[in-house]
Amino acid sequence: MEKKPDDKLIIAGREFGSRLMVGTGKYTTMEQMVRAIEASGAEVITVAVRRVNISDRSKESLLDHIDLKKYTLLPNTAGCYNAEDAVRTCRLAREAGLSDFVKLEVLGDEKTLFPDNEELLKAAKVLIKEGFTVLPYTSDDPIVCKKLEDIGCAAVMPLGAPIGSGLGIRNPYNIRIILDTVRVPVIVDAGVGTASDAAIAMELGCHGVLMNTGIAGAQDPVAMAEAMKLAVRAGRLAYLAGRIPKKLYATASSPIEGIMT
Amino acid sequence: MNIVVNGEPQSIESMTVLAYLEKIAIDPRRVAVELNLDILPKADYASTLLNEGDRIEIVHFVGGG
Fold this sequence. Notes:
The complex is a heterodimer of chains A (261) and B (65).
Chain A: E1 9-11, E2 14-16, E3 20-23, H1 30-40, E4 44-51, E5 72-75, H2 83-97, E6 101-104, H3 117-129, E7 133-138, H4 142-150, E8 157-158, H5 172-181, E9 187-189, H6 195-203, E10 208-211, H7 213-216, H8 221-241
Parallel strand pairs in A: 3-4, 3-10, 4-5, 6-7, 7-8, 9-10
Antiparallel strand pairs in A: 1-2
Chain B: E1 2-5, E2 8-11, H1 17-23, E3 32-35, E4 38-40, E5 55-63
């Protein structure tokens, strides 16, 4: 195996030392968010694009709290239900952040927040033509992931389970098939509830994990952020180390030879 | 004159986009502006005059997944 345990995550030619990406939503305070992101070791952090409140300017600005030299912002299109709105949001995000990286999500339904893959593909095509580096949040569907890769997405980000559900990796077999199907990085996005979920994603061979609620919603978000950092690292190392095959019966760990009779 | 900012009708004097942002205490570096559905590049804020009936969107980054 040529890969080293400290191998980098490479997306569209850009190298990242951490394979964990985290969101910035749902924290109780900005201070808590900053500490959690720090503890997670993440280098890529997602943000949402929203209207400025023009009548009440007292609210703190997110970017006042984030060191842009340290983190790569990944603006999302959360809340967009069609390709047109998602494309519009990405164009605004690029202008606000001066980076081409976008987390493209086009939602199909408010209850499940499952992706509308038809609109997702439509939006991705437009954005790629406009020079965006598109990281699409998608279903754990290998066919859709292949299509996203074929049109030029820089990675695919299949869900492990519905956004914010904490149900973990519901279909590890599909994730494995996706890993066999595409050559771009596969980043599990959504569904991670606790450290073992993140480790499982990485043990399957995923290139990274993106989460928000799993950390921000924990009773102690800063501690959970560190747990996730360790889990992603542990899962990656275990994947690279190559696990033993599963067997139904025991194999003794101690030598049979020399047992006293 | 009347314009619509982030969906809200506003009555303002004639001014540039940059002047308007300063008037409502917004740091131009931290936002993106859309003028009548087209992105307005930051470099054009100072030279673009707002016109009667313009619809502008001013967005920024907030916490999100």
